[in-house]
Design a protein that fits this description.
372 residues, two-stranded antiparallel sheet, binds adenosine-5'-triphosphate, binds magnesium ion
């Protein structure tokens, strides 16, 4: 079943990217010198770097600390909407543009914070896609490092998958889950194959998938992203970063990063979407704490596939759709990175899954008794 479904999409990958710019390895790994100097140095440094790397129009705007302070009512606790490893996130409103914004205020001034701030500004100024977060601008007044995004009214996928009871939200319906997975896959496909320069995202996880009012997903947090290898290069070697559980095993072991590392992380997120379980959850029984280990024996027996569907769906999902979604997940989670699909194949598979065409396809296993 898994093989049959997957084979439909296992077409030869066409190299859509022509004339990829040849970035030197040293540029891939560092954006040096940002922490030095005064405000005007910092501002011109960012603009110079963007100009050096980018060929397109730069859309991000410079905000002053006063403007952002006014927009967030002086970074008031009432405006706090989240907190991550790099600081607090506040909801704000820009009155003269009548726009809601999310303001991410870095609270560390160390090298790491600076570097990730700069990578985020650089990359999001160059990359534009409907499934990537919109960076409206940034502020680097004094010691401040602040990122300004378009506000995403439905927050993060993490809230809707794992925290819905706490937040008094409703569990996500099956179709919305597949819509989110498809959009996230399209975002990654864009980064890997269409973006100029191509990028490995490195930090795909449920909390970094933000949702707009129509449940369209946007990937956020590009501070860990790397320029992808081009030409003869197959990988880049870099410090292992990312979030435990989402990291591809070969990258965690060797530091060799490829686009297939993102494909693995996508498999993890898709399995979280299907099961409603966190990849690592220390609160449950020991055999259920690691999602991948818990799912491994279930993947081997199709009669147990239904045990992987999120119980909060209460059976409201097409059995065939569940099988196909799990087939995609299993392919992405393969230990051997070379056997994982590329993101364009994942996107095609998910588009097929949502198109309704799959209803006409035979299952190929001679047993459709449990399928709708
Ligand atoms: N543009 C946005 N619109 C609405 N809410 C947002 C936006 N950006 C971030 N948030 C909220 O802020 C929370 C924290 O985001 P943040 O990226 O700082 O941390 P994280 O993703 O949870 O962890 P990490 O630091 O490891 O990335 C998100 O989970 C989300 O709820
Ligand atoms: Mg995040």
């Amino acid at each position: 079943m898994m093989g049959c479904f997957w084979c439909c999409f296992n077409q030869k990958r066409t190299n859509r990217k022509k004339g990829i710019r040849d970035f030197k390895e040293s540029r891939q790994d560092s954006f040096p010198g940002f922490s030095r100097g005064n405000d005007s140095f910092r501002r011109s440094y960012i603009r110079d770097e963007i100009a050096k790397y980018g060929k397109r129009e730069i859309s991000s705007q410079y905000f002053t600390y006063e403007e952002l302070s006014a927009a967030t009512k002086n970074f008031s606790y009432n405006n706090l909407i989240g907190e991550g490893g790099f600081g607090r996130v506040y909801k704000g409103h820009i009155a003269n543009k009548n726009t809601d914004i999310a303001v991410k205020k870095l609270d560390r001034n160390g090298y790491q914070g600076n570097r990730e701030f700069l990578v985020e500004v650089l990359l999001l100024s160059l990359l534009h896609h409907t499934n990537l977060v919109n960076l409206l601008g940034y502020c680097s007044d004094g010691e401040q490092r602040i990122l300004v995004y378009k506000y995403m009214p439905n927050g993060s996928l993490e809230d809707h998958l794992f925290n819905w009871r706490v937040g008094e939200l409703k569990p996500l319906e099956w179709d919305i889950r597949i819509k989110i997975a498809t959009g996230a896959a399209r975002g990654l496909e864009y980064l890997h194959n269409k973006a100029d320069p191509p990028v490995i995202y490195r930090d795909l996880k449920a909390s970094n998938i933000l949702l707009d009012e129509e449940w369209n997903p946007r990937l956020s947090d590009f501070g860990l992203a790397k320029l992808a290898p081009t030409g003869e290069q197959t990988h880049i070697t870099t410090k292992v970063m990312g979030t435990y559980g989402y990291c591809a095993p070969e990258y965690a072991l060797t530091g060799r990063l490829t686009r297939k590392s993102d494909v693995y992380s996508f498999g993890v997120v898709f399995l979280e979407i299907i099961t409603g379980r966190r990849v690592i959850d220390c609160s449950g029984p020991s055999e259920e704490q690691n999602l991948i280990a818990w799912a491994a024996p279930l993947f081997k027996d199709r009669r147990k596939f239904h045990l992987m569907a999120d119980s909060s769906l209460e059976g409201r999902y097409p059995m065939k759709g569940l099988y196909q979604a799990l087939a995609v997940t299993a392919m992405c989670l393969q230990e051997d990175a070379t056997k994982r699909p590329v993101m364009s194949q994942v996107v095609s598979a998910l588009e097929y899954l949502t198109s309704g065409q799959n209803e006409e396809q035979p299952t190929g296993d001679g047993d459709s008794s449990s399928e709708e």
